[in-house]
Amino acid sequence: MQHIQSYLDEHKDRFLNELIDLLRIPSVSADPAFKDNVIKTAHVIKDSLLSAGCDHVEICETEGFPIVYGEKIIDEKLPTILVYGHYDVQPADPVELWHSPPYEPVIKKTEIHPEGAIFARGACDDKGQMYMHVKAMEFMTKTQQLPCNVKFMIEGEEEVGSVNLSKFVKNNQEKLKNDVILISDTGMIAQDVPSITTGLRGLSYVEVEVTGPNRDLHSGLYGGAVANPINILTKMIASLHDEDNHITIPGFYDKVEDLSDAERAEMAKAPFSLKEYEKSIGINSVYGEKGYSTNERNSIRPTLDVNGIWGGYIGEGAKTVIASQAFAKISMRLVPNQDWEEITTLFKNHFESIAPAGVTVKVKPHHGGQGYVTPIDSIGYQAASKAYYDTFGKNPIPQRSGGSIPIVSLFEQELKSKTILMGFGLNSDAIHSPNEHFGVWNYFKGIETIPLFYKYFTELSK
User: Fold this and answer.
1) What is the rounded distance in angstroms from the CA atom of residue 171 to the CA atom of residue 193?
2) Which residues of 5-34 are buried (b: 16+ CB within 10 A; e: fewer)?
3) Which stretch of DSSP H or E encloses residue 331?
4) So what's the pLDDT on residue 128?
5) 304-341 b/e with 16+ CB inside 10 Å = b?
6) Which of 85, 231, 318, 427 could pair covalently with 130 via S-S, beta carbons 3.0-4.6 A apart?
């Protein structure tokens, strides 16, 4: 495409300042205290889409936070790209661990980002990456280089499970009709190693409760004579993995796809330093399922992890009690073909079956989603690959992500279209953590690359 670099150079400061202003709004969907800010952000996105050249933009109300829908239809005979993103962010807690206030964006140079990175909650997930698409749209419309139709669907509940998006998608299939869905809510391998995410893991999230006596008991008078719910819970959780870190739930692996040696060899071509990986998160050794590499463990294999555990007395000093109850939150990352509802049922049945006499167990399912794989021989993947090659000078590496974006499988089910995941963040960007950031270089590289996807997708669709 002509003039994209000169256009970026001319408008660089404005593009950066607009994102910084967006990051100043604490659009935390999980906390009712931020409700007004979440709604305010939706209206900012609406105005931005109109300024970028959409002919029609609307705030679509839901039972929760609104969805911003925009479109520019230039010719019904041309392909239509649907861009999905989200404007809500994770809570900033623990705030005391931030080096600068989470909603007062600052640009600081880092070893990985020598040109500077924007430090703020939502910088990478997903305001920065979502806003790349808005600015790419602006470039294409202002320079009369938009080659096809475009639709935007930007929601405000992704960080709380996209509670109302499913209903919106099911009720608006004609409005959302498209030829491919484009999302930037993932990352790439490294600054100089572009990659396209071709697989996402599914998710099953549950809460478990173990109840013993009808009240907290004196550990001296009752210790050793009654089942301690905390002791029992930890034993039950420990039994969910064997000595090879293989998950012991019957039927758990029945539908797990075993990748061929050739596919695993392709994955292994991605540059990876085990030493740097360990250093980056402050550990002295990796840990996981026997027979698989670190990158395979966190992408093509399912997992089961305790996300929180509590019960009894945790205050200052000592209180010698046997707690009446103990609780834990457990998540299972699933690979394609594993149905999250089926896995949740398998977990529930197994966990209840291993409870010893003296306690009762309850399993409360929270939410989940299916895994997803996109073929690398699709027009969408080929278009993305050509776009990356133009801007990075090398072919992107296909990679499967360990994360989950449950709405991607929903899109394929309801809209019958594939999703292309063009992420420009890095694993080191600390999403969901204190000091989240997004490289300034990455932000502009995304704006430079996205219009080329439109160009190549339109050409390959003919």
Assistant:
1) 40
2) eebbeebeeebbebbbebbebbbbbeeeeb
3) strand 325-334
4) 98
5) beeeeeebbeeeeeeeebbbbbbbbbbbbbbbbebbbe
6) 85
For residue 334, the surrounding DSSP H or E stretch is: strand 325-334
pLDDT at site 267: 79
Q: What pLDDT is stored for residue 263 in this prediction? A: 78
- Residue partners of 123: CB distance under 8 A and separation at least 6: 23, 105, 117, 429, 436, 437, 438
Dist CA 353 CA 151 (whole Å):
49
pTM, 2 dp: 0.85
Gap between the Cα atoms of 306 and 329, Å rounded = 6
**Ramachandran angles phi, psi of 438, nearest 5°:** -145, 125
Q: How far apart are CA 307 and CA 75, in angstroms?
A: 49
The bridge status of strand 106-108 relative to strand 117-119 is antiparallel
Residue 243: CB atoms within 10 Å: 6
